[in-house]
Write a structure and sequence with these properties.
seven-stranded mixed sheet; 25% helix; 236 residues; 7 helices; Metallo-beta-lactamase, Chain A; alpha/beta; globular; single chain; six-stranded mixed sheet
Length: 236
């Protein structure tokens, strides 16, 4: 697992070059964003040792298995670290893969695996996790979240966008890396969420799959507008 720093606070941990977790550095510890594929815990713990700070929080953008696969192992190694996820995707962690009436497509998509770990905190739009503001970004999953660092404008967007295979909104197929699109539950909601994230005008876009982009707002709007052309009601 490679470790790359972006700016003064953000660290990218990439497994197999395409499956990302992130550390957000704070004065007294690290917040881990996403728990990556199964088997990633030793490398994540080693990376924290390289940085020289303890992992004090684990926050999850959503409950797909490539983002929560090492959660149980990390929780066992770090029992004092607070675990957080959206209230909606906490149901997926608990093994409830049902969709509510009127919520959207009738079946969730992507890798769905229940975990033994239960969250200590359920997150909602507008909550704060240290210096980061929680931004609801449903569509890839019903309770997908993004995290906006108000110190420097970094946006950790999970799978609301992808960069691997070409920049895209969740639900837009990129043949060179099709997995986020194939795992997207509601492409219309995902396009709406991506537009709200682009409106933040982030200085940096960090996604679940692919490299970190600097000054990404213009590129984000291009792919959002492409998604909007397939859903006319989404146009600004």
């Amino acid at each position: 697992m490679s470790l790359t720093q972006h700016g003064s606070q953000l660290f990218q941990l990439a497994r197999f070059g395409a499956f990302n977790s992130y550390f957000m550095r704070e004065p007294h510890g690290l917040t881990l964003i996403d728990a990556n594929l199964p088997g990633s815990a030793p490398a994540i713990l080693k990376a924290a040792q390289q940085i020289g700070l303890p992992i004090t929080r684990i926050v999850l953008t959503h409950a797909h298995s490539d983002h929560v696969g090492s959660l149980d192992a990390l929780h066992a190694a770090l029992p004092g670290a607070e675990v957080s996820i959206s209230a909606r995707d906490a149901r997926i962690l608990a093994g409830d893969f049902s969709v509510d009436a009127g919520e959207g497509p009738a079946k969730l998509r992507g890798g769905l695996t229940a975990t033994q770990t239960r969250p200590d905190r359920l997150l909602h739009d507008g909550d704060r996790v240290g210096p980061m503001r929680v931004v609801a970004a449903p569509g890839h999953t019903p309770g997908h979240l993004a995290f906006y660092d108000e110190r420097d404008g970094s946006l950790i967007a999970g799978d609301a966008f992808q960069v691997a295979g070409g920049l895209a909104v969740a639900g837009q197929l990129r043949p060179l890396f099709p997995f986020p699109a194939l795992a997207t539950w509601d492409a219309r909601l995902a396009a709406e969420a991506a537009a709200r994230l682009a409106e933040l005008k982030p200085s940096r876009l960090a996604v679940g799959h692919g490299r970190v982009l600097e000054q990404p707002t213009g590129a984000m709007w291009k792919v959002v507008q492409a998604a909007q052309r397939h859903s006319p009601k989404l146009a600004r």
